[in-house]
Every structure is written in C-alpha cells, then in structure tokens.
Amino acid sequence: MAIAQARQRAWSARWSYVYLAPMMVLLVGFIVYPIVASLGYTLYRWNGIGDPSEFVGLGNFRQITHDSIFWHAVEHTFVFAAFVVPIQLVLALALALVLNNRKLRFASFYRTLYFLPVVTSAAVMGVVIQLLISNFGDKINSILLTLHVIDHHVDWLAQPHFAFAIIIAVGIWHTFGYNLVYFLAGLQTIPEDLYEAARMDGAGRRAQFWHITIPMLRGVGVVILILAIIGTFQIFDIVQIITGGGPYFATEVVNTYIYHLAFGGANATAVQPDVGLASAASFFYGLLLIAFSAIQVVVLRSLVRRRSQGVVAA
Amino acid sequence: MTVLSVPTRKAAPPESPLVRPKRRRPRPTIVLTHVALLAGGVAWLYPFWWVLGSSLKDTGGFFSGGLNPLPHQFLWSNYTQAWREASFGTYFLNTLLITLGTVVLTLISTAMAGYVLSRTSFPGRGLCLGLVSATLFLPHGYTIIPIFDTVQKLGLLNSLWAVIIVQAAGGIVFGTFLFMGFFGSIDRALEDAARVDGASFHQTFWRVMLPLSGPMAATVGLFTAITAWNSFFIPLVFTLGRPDLRTLAVGMYAFIGENSTQWTLLCAGSVITLAPIIVLFLLLQRFFVNGLAGAVKQ
To answer: Contact at 8 Å (CB) between A222 and A304?
Structure first.
C-alpha cells in the first residue's frame, strides 16, 4: 500500500525528476564521483597511466606529512594569506568608506575602476606582470650596472623574496574588488538614522566610525574575512604563471606543489608524476583547511558574541 | 577622508569663531577626493594601460619604452599577426564557443533544478538537496584525474565539449543555490494563477517563472561567462595534446614557451583576451555587483 502510494507520488512528480536530471548528472558525474575516486587514489602509488595497481595504504599520507617541501608550501600559502588578507581588507574598507559617501558623485564609476581587475584572467595578468617585471628589471639592471652596484644582469623573478613580493602584490591587486563590493554592500545595510542620532549626540567622525560602522559591519565582516582567507588558500594561477613555484620551491604554494606532483615538476628538480601522492596531498590539505576554518568560525563567533553582549550590556 | 581634510583645515585662516569650519570644508575636500580617486584608479589599472600601449609598439620600442605605456607609432599589424600567425584567432573562437556552451548548459541545468528543488515536492528531494550541500563541505581532493578519466570514457576527450561540460559542472552548485533562492522568493499565488488558467508544468516554468528570473539569470550567466572565459587550469589539462583546441588563456601560456621573443605579439594577444570580458562586464556590471552584494548580505 505504502509502496504503491510512494510510487504514485513519484510518478506524479516525474517532471520534477526530469528537470532535476541534468544538474544531478553533472553533479554526480563530475563533482561527487571524482571526490570519491580521488580518495581511492590516495592509497596507491600511480603515475596516472592505466589503472592504479601498486597499493601503498596510508604510505602516501606518511610521505606527504614527512615532506619538508609540502610544509614549506603550506607555510608559503599561509604567509601569502597573512599578507594579502589584512592589506586587502583594510584598503578595501578604507576605499568603501570613501565611496559610500552619498554626496560623492561618480562613486559607481570609481567602484568600477577598482573592481575591474577581478573580471580579468589571473593567468593572462600573470603573463602581463611577467612581461612588465622583465622590462622593469632591465631598467633597474641598467641603472644598477652604471652605478656599479651590481656587476652582472640580475633576473629579478629568480630572486626569491622579490618574486614572492610580486606574487603578493598581484594577489592583493587581482581580488581587491571583491572585498570592496562586499564592504560597500555591508555599509549600505547600516541605517542612516544611527549616524544622525550619533551626530545629534555630538559624536565626531571618528567616534561614529568606531562605535557605529565597525560594530555594525561585524557580521558581514566575518563573512568577508572567511571568503578572503578561503580564496587566498586556493592560490594557483598567479604563482604557476609568474614563477612556476620557483626558484627552487621558494614560491611553491600548496596548489602548485600538488600540480607538480600530478603532472611532473616544472622546477629544476624533475618530479616523477604521482597521482596517488598528489591526491593524498590534496586530501590532506583539504582536511587541514577544514580544521582551520572550523577553528576560525568558532573563534570569530565567540568574539562577535562576546562583543555584541558587551554592547547590549553597556 | 580624514587625512585629506587635515591640510584644508590647517590652511583655513582663524577667522571669526562664529564661522564654523564645517561649512568651508566640503569643497576642497571633495575636489581632493576626486583627484585622489581618479589618480589612484588610473594607477590601479596601470598594467592594462601598459599592455594596451605595448601591444602597439615595435620590438625595439617595447624595450626602449620600458614602463612608459605610450607607443611612438601605432603598429596595428601586431594584432593581425597575433590573430593569424600566432593562432589567437583560433584561440578566440575556441574560447567564445566554450564560454557560450558553458553559460547555456549552466543556466538551463541550474534554473530547472533550482525551480523544482524550491517549488515542488517529490520523494528524494531531501537527498538531492543534501548531496548538493555536501559538496560545499567535502574536501575536494585532486579531482581533475578522475574527471579526466570520466571524460575519456565518455569519448569526449579532444573536443571542446570536454571543457564545456567540466566547467559547467564546476558552477552548478553555486547557480542552483542562487536560482533556488530566487524561485523560492516568488509568491506562490502566481504559480497557482497560472495553473488555474490551465498552464501545464512546463508552461508554468518556461512561460511564467523563467522569464521572471531574468535578473538572476543574468547574474548567474555573467558569473559563468567570466569564469569560463578566464579559466586556465581545466582547458590547460584538456588541451594538453590538442594545440588547436587551446583557449586564449592557455594559448598565452603556451606562447611564452614557444615564441619567447615576440613580446609585442604576446601583448596583443593579452588585449584580445582581456578586452571582450571587460566590455561584457562594463555592459552588465549591475547584475554582477548586485549578485556579489546579495551573496554577502545573506
């Protein structure tokens, strides 16, 4: 009886299934199945050709967690995030505050100007930056050569610190616009009455900023912060194009490290492609990020709650 | 703002205390703000000016010009040469087809799915929703290898379809959620009215609901178009063995390796890659920016 009823309900909703089918096929075939399959690969040593056969159990995970290059890549990724996220957020908030002024004309034009890098390809901008740097480097070289500071041509992108600084700068520049738009959206949710009331009470601009804008932005701010951090942890295109992770792994981030494991090293040291190892590294990094974001969410939530309770109590 | 207003306040002569400085402040501050914003914006976009100028230089001018974006003469032949000899014409067509295909496939599959998930009930709905949501939280692992494997088994390797399907799949969770939110917010009375008027399930969706979702479709479509046009990793992997199927971004990357000395052609190629998506964005930016803002506010 119940089965017949369920069948009838399913039949009457048959078009729902038909409408759902394309999305579900894509989801299962190209997202869910690959996630499950790549989890299986983590247990094999496999160069990606034919079927995986050499079972190594958790050996890949052991190898990854003992690989100093992996941990350096993690470190580089965190350093990248540690520079990009705070600088980007502070700059974006500052510009958003300026543009949020209702009396400022052409605000949306300026927003477009600063947003524009977001819509361009990181890969192509990486190429452009590379060309720019090689041109800029030539100029610097000729100046330094005539001043006898250096005695030979310097390849600037082969200087680890310089290369890393360039990657950070491009990282800030390329996704800055997202944070600008997010902050503008956040600022627009703050009711104008609050500022009016504050002004009537004699609050100055600074007091309004610290006692209205910042507390009111806290909810949106947490989302923006988390999105920015997640984004920077996935950095790949810029690094792959500008330095390929080099020189000698000095700018290797986790995603270029995994790419080099799966497709062979582009660096001076030739790495044998090992899809099992790449899958293990990727899965392990995914777990690291989940643990990290869980901690982050818990910490931020408790901070926000404590502060907002403080505000209510005051 | 405060930094900018400091010098004007200092410059103001200490006249009568009755004249409040607040009154005279706005004008110079606003002018300074505009100057700073405009100068900053022009500087912010410097890489674009530089690549645009360099794409019109000759090779000698490219090196002697250095960081100065202005070319001495306009060498338009860089573009014809990049288009024909450096295959950027082929890359452009491939990128265009891939972008169109990805947008159409994403829009149709996510609009239909978002509609039935938010407006109809059927056995298994919870399971489907759970599966869609779960993909957001699972660690993704290195999925490109099994994806490659699946595409190969489907016999789609070495075709633009491979890139289209894989890229569309990458954006469906995001699109489905956006459409679910949109259709979920539409008044149920509208659907009922359509049904009372004798509209079938299909007519209700295609004639009533879908046209209403225009702005949301524009948001999802533009997001998808920008992502598809700019994507690098997926087309790189799926065109490794077929240079004639390369997209613009992949073509640029390959060009560095193959013709490492023709910088000005590379710059022309960059402009060919960057310009269409910038124009598309400028035309439709309202939808993009609103979509982003909405995502954070929720």
So the answer is: yes
